[in-house]
Amino acid sequence: MSDSSDYCKCDVCKGYEICTITQSTGPLSGIYTCFDEGHKFCKNCFPEFHKRITSADNIRRIVKEEKWAYQYYHDVDDIGSNIDDDPDEEVIGKGEEILQEYYAEVPSKECPMCQKKIVRDDEILEYLLKKLKTTRAKVIKEMRVHE
Ligand SMILES: [Zn+2]
Ligand SMILES: [Zn+2]
Questions:
Q1: pLDDT of 118-142, one tens digit each?
Q2: What would the DSSP string read from start to end of 50-81?
Q3: How far apart are CA 48 and CA 60, in angstroms?
Q4: How far, in Å, from the CA of 77 to the mean position of ligand 2?
Q5: Among 22, 57, 99, 105, which residue's CB has the most CB atoms within a 10 Å radius?
Q6: Confidence band (pLDDT; 50, 70, 90) for 32?
Q7: Cα of 19 to ligand 1 centre, how many Å?
Q8: Is 80 found in the same domain as 36?
Q9: Dist. CA 40 → ligand 1 center (Å)
Q10: Count of other CB atoms within 10 angstroms of residue 115
Q11: 133 Cα to the center of ligand 2, angstroms
Q12: CA of 135 relative to ligand 1 center, distance in Å
């Protein structure tokens, strides 16, 4: 994590999004970080994920479920009896910032890479080597013999 440019690089397309400027991953940056495995992926590679995350319904859900998000939205220290207030259309304004906080890191169960929505070639290789009970070196040796 020493190089900030690496920090903002998508594992799938190797592209960069604006988190080189914001220095923080999340929906506003266009690059997400997986909390558990450290996967990095951009909104362009997982448009459906990004669309779901940034949907008004999802923002409403977070504001309703997360006390801090509710406080942030309403700009109050204490929720008191207002907790039942239903966040209206206005919520979308602060919603972007709330989302950025909420999805600074994505839990593994929500990470499209952990969920194998896209599988990298090196992961396929690793899987096949294990399945065939062989190693990279053995495969290379075998290929040389057969040439
Ligand atoms: Zn990407
Ligand atoms: Zn992941």
A1: 777 888 899 999 999 999 999 999 9
A2: HHHHTSHHHHHHHHHH-HHHHHHHHT-S--TT
A3: 18
A4: 34
A5: 99
A6: very high
A7: 13
A8: yes
A9: 8
A10: 11
A11: 25
A12: 30
Residues 125 and 64 in one domain: no
Q: How far apart are CA 24 and CA 30, in angstroms?
A: 10
Query: Is residue 19 domain-shared with residue 74, that is, in the same domain?
Result: yes
- pLDDT value of position 87: 63
The model's confidence at residue 63, banded by pLDDT at 50, 70 and 90, is confident
Domain that holds residue 130: 118-147
User: Does residue 22 share a domain with residue 44?
Assistant: yes
90 and 146 co-located in one domain: no
Residues 13 and 49 in one domain: yes
- Assess whether 36 and 55 both reside in one domain: yes
Ligand (nearest to CA of 114): 2
Ligand nearest to the CA of 44: 1
CB atoms within 10 A of CB 106: 24
